[in-house]
Amino acid sequence: MARDTGAVCRQCRREGLKLFLKGERCFTAKCAFERRGYAPGQHGQNRRFKQSNYGLQLREKQKIRRSYQILENQFRKTYQDALRERGITGEALIARLECRLDNVVFRLGMAPSLRSARQLVNHGHFEVNDREVNIPSFTLRPGDVVRVRQKSRKLEFIHESMRRVREERTVPYLALDKAKMEGILQHRPKREEVPINANEQLVVELYSR
Fold it and tell me: What is the pTM of this model?
């Protein structure tokens, strides 16, 4: 399976905002974006240029794609699926990305970062509706229950991550039961409920060119 193994902090710096790709570290003074908030590279501090409309659209697409840590082919496929839905395509795109199993595991606080959530899913540590699922891109539906598998409940890595869950970072479309080590997707995410600072309409314009 293809995956991006590059430095995630460089991605935040390139997009000019925190994408919170390193979990708890992003909320501390160790965050690379806090220490070097300019674009990476030799001339990162001196980049001054006016972006074209295409450049603005591309940056928004990269911002969203990197926020969910998926590659271009996966992102385009998700867009094509959203395009077939009724309603606003951009909002459908964000909702589909939010309902990915790896992202839900991360949002529930069962993993400290999106990359680690994907690795845990790949290794078969979670089940959906009492069935093991090891596909990070598996799309959840409202009412689906994500649970840590019985054989994985002794993993200190998961317990440590759940202990760090803060109430103010929870999203309204998910409900977490720490005692049962499970979470429920209560409803399809609405755009205003998703903590992503991006303009998805520019992505629709980009792919419609």
Answer: 0.81
Helix (H, G, I), strand (E, B) or coil at 2: coil
Q: What H or E segment, with its residue span, contains residue 174?
A: strand 174-177
Neighbouring residues of 158: CB distance < 8 A, sequence distance ≥ 6: 110, 111, 120, 125, 148, 152, 181
| Backbone dihedral region for residue 41 (phi beyond 0: left; psi -120 to 50: alpha; all else: beta) | left
- The answer to whether 118 and 91 have CB atoms below 8 angstroms apart is no
Cα 8 → chain centroid: 13
Tokens of 151: 């054989």
In the sheet that holds 174-177, the strands lie side by side as: 131-132, 126-128, 145-148, 182-185, 174-177
Domains of the chain listed by start with CATH number: 8-97+196-207 (1.10.1050.10), 101-187 (3.10.290.10)
Which regions of the chain are under pLDDT 50? 1, 43
Whether residue 28 contacts residue 18, with contact meaning beta carbons closer than 8 Å, is answered with no
- Torsion 202-18-192-126 (CA) sign: positive
